[in-house]
Amino acid sequence: MNKKKNKDDRKVLTLRYRMDINNHVSFIDPCCDEIPAQLFGQLMSAISDVQYKWNRDIDNIKNKQNEEK
Asked: Residues 43, 64: contact at Cβ < 8 Å?
């Protein structure tokens, strides 16, 4: 039997993030291997939406906790 060696065609997308003392997140320093610009733009747009929603939800939770005090 002949074994085929599969070429690993996976690419790497690295995304660093930072959280401040208020638990707000910032995605920084995206890095990737050979990705089409349009796909990269769509990924960054989606990540930006996640960042915005996370930070908004954190603020809403903190505001709710402050109102209960």
From this structure: no
Phi-psi region of 30 (alpha: psi -120 to 50; beta: other; left: phi over 0): beta
| Mean pLDDT per 10-residue interval, the chain, length 69 residues | 73 92 91 88 94 96 87
Nearest to 20 by CA among 48, 68, 54: 54
Strands (DSSP E) along 1-69, which ranges?
13-19, 25-32
Q: How many CB atoms lie within 10 A of CB 52?
A: 11
* Distance from chain centroid for Cα 40: 12
